[in-house]
Amino acid sequence: MGIINEKYALLSVYDKTGIIDFAKVLSSLNYKIISTGGTAKVLTENGIGVIPIQQITGNPESFDGRMKTISFQIESGILFNRNNPSHVRQARKLKIKPIDIVVCNLYPFEKTVSKKSVLINDAIESIDVGGPTMIRAAAKNFKNVLVIVDPNDYKSISLLLHSGGVSEKVKKELAAKAFSHLSFYDSQIAYFLKEELFTEEVTIPGRKMLDLRYGENPHQKSAFYVQPNSNSILENLKHLWGRDLSLVNVIDINAGIEAVRLFKENAAAVIKHANPCGIALGKSIAEALKRAIDADPESAFGGIVVLNKEMDLNAAKIIGEFKDERKSNVDIVAIPEITKDALEYLKKLRKSMGIYTFDSIHKLDKKSLNIKFVDGGFILQSIDKDIDRSFSKWRVVTKVKPAKKQLEQMKIGWKFISRTKSNSIIIIDRDLPMTRGIGSGQTSRFRSTQIALKQAGKYAKGAILVSDSFFPFDDTIKLAAKYQIAGIVQQGGSVNDKMSIDTANRLKIPMVFTNRRAFWH
To answer: What is the mean pLDDT of residues 344-356?
Structure first.
């Protein structure tokens, strides 16, 4: 049988974690180890005998390492079918060495392009070609070849090899992992190189951050993934105390971050089911949080608090007051940072309250896209951002002009509503930068108005009403007048705009058109 009875393993890794111990296991099982450059050097220095890859290929490593593993001899040794007599005869005739194990991980493209100042040439040099070729070949021929791309698998595979071998089922699982790894790797390269946002074909890489407590409901399983180098704030989530996260918790934290990241000022949001119960600004983060809770304390029960600044003891005590005065609890607190005394205070306040930090809130990447999943697919869209720049396109459409303070409240309200589920109407306090009423997620804009005004109650008098889109009729304006709303801001663009303007003029309510919609789904 000749060389077909010999056992070869090819080891070529960038991440050398655990490779020495695994190579020792393979040597003890009489595998002859073929290796490349840096990997061969490390193994040799640790007393492990290797066959330099150029001895197999017959060619030296060339072009600064661009060519070393790609060869007829290497790929044939991985790809030929050991169960096909014709393949075996050809392998003997061509003196192809059977490579039964391929251990490979790739150049750190992800790490290279994570640097904001990365040069295109440096990125290109971090694109691995030989590694993916070997991995793909081994994964295709998984019935004959064991492929390992993750150092975390060394230990379990070592045990299996010592105990009699690796089953085809495990080989298949490792092959699937290898193809996923390649797809994950290649999709990052495509994302980095592409100029067009909406290409004909697209893949979305994701790395699992954590297994979640459950999905939307306790009987559903769930896991949380993050795109590499996406600049995601959620990638930095750190669990300090209390409950683990469910799918709903992660979505709510994200909704809160989206709401408060629009502001340089101290901002707080209380979120339930991806919707704000209250959003507010303040001179201190404690003041912002108190206002956000006071906006709708009934809905804030069991909610998630998200801040855009560090939580101090004063802010933590606002949650304590909420519990003492209203017998209400907060389920999750997610903040950039938290002081030591604030953390200790919250730990004593409620054992099950989850406390998470996410380091900082930064600007969205210019390539950032919003993903909406639908049955069997997804929709990509650009992010609704740069809201401040849209203010220059606003137009006062009524004879009565809004006062300077009213216009300021309108602009704050427009930011608030841009992160409130549509159809949405919100009521902004006449003086304070906080919501007083939120009507969201309704199929009827008028019903959203009813909800928001009823919730605002006495605070509707002199307040600002904000709509995320235009009014199809003037019924909202008439209802707003009954509650003594003092200003309205809406998109404009309805066929009935004149009716709405005439009604606002008759009722002496200043109204502004934004000429921009603020839907959020």
So the answer is: 96
